[in-house]
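Hey everyone, long-time lurker, first post.

I ran two proteins through the pipeline my lab uses and got sequence/structure pairs for each. Pasting them in order. The first:
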Amino acid sequence: MNTTVKKRIDEIKSQGYNIDFGDVFNQTIENYKKIAMYGGLVLFLFFVVFILGLSGIFSAIFGTDEALKILKSEDLKPENLDLYGLLIISLISIAIGTLVSPFIAGLFKMAHNADKDEEFHVSTMFHYYKSPYFQEIVIATFLLSVLDSLINGALNYVEIPFLGAVISVIISLFTFLTIPLIIFGNLKAINAIESSVVVVAKQPFILLALLVVGIIAVCLGIFGCCIGILFTIPFIYAMVFVIYKYIIGFPEKKEEVVPTNFESL
């Protein structure tokens, strides 16, 4: 149990907090410098294996030629899908996002290690595929993905996709601290989602501005033959880590203790 985080969340509820845009941005750059190359290489290898594996599954089920036709089909566009098609696409997206989320959470672990000037390896990216982190990360990701998919699916079906996109941005903004609160604050999935909403609600505009700058920085990687984006993706994770550190903070301790129970607020 992390009583320090519980006390900090209670303080934020009653008193709020201050956050300096420039300080967070500068700390993010310093952290990103330490994880950019290694994080990018690991992401590159992961996506190559993931795409090859996904292609192999499609080819095994439908055959190579048929799989290519399906993936290139105009019918896969949301506006061309019926309710059943939207449901299938949503379920596939939720399943992939949920299973991959502990791996992506490894970027936060990498940023944390870099912040403490500790070594990190390929195994760092798989750190959260173990109890008790895996269960809570998967539950949180699943719940948020289902909520987002239901809203987007319904609005796409009634042909109001723009509103769905706006709501998705709002959900992402208010819940972006969920995973850090699970892996660093030892909170359960529901508590982490609720706490993220509480924290973001106190300073939504400055946090949105920081994330927009982070996303722009990530998008600059497209100019590096598109592959470059894999090396800029760690920037947004470094930024989220720094935001968590800046707002919630870490208790001073010499070594990480893997919790057996998660804190309930």
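...and the second, right after it:
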Amino acid sequence: MSQLSEQTCEACRQDAPQVTQAEIEQYGAEIPEWQIVERDGIMKLERSFTFRNFQQALDFTNRVGEIAEEAGHHPALLTEWGKVTVTWWSHAIKGLHKNDFILAARTDEVAT
């Protein structure tokens, strides 16, 4: 279990700061399988997970949905046969917040 996954998400308001480059490096070290991608000028965390079949992919999608609901913070989920791509970012600030890294770490945990 990573230290990030044990932390609590905080409400992310429009005036909340995005993570700094130093924070990206610090938090990213705990979730090395995640990639930072930029889409439409917005930085996001993304990782694809592979499974043996569609049912396993769907079950994982539902587990990620549960942690998202608990935290009140929701990712983009693309569920395909044997694969789920999870993308975290904070809509309110149009970028990355510490919450995204916390939930990426929790996503890794439900994948195991």
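Reply from user beta_strand_b:
Welcome! Quick read of the second one: Residues 86 and 100 are 11 Å apart (CA to CA). Helices lie at 21-28, 54-71, 98-111.
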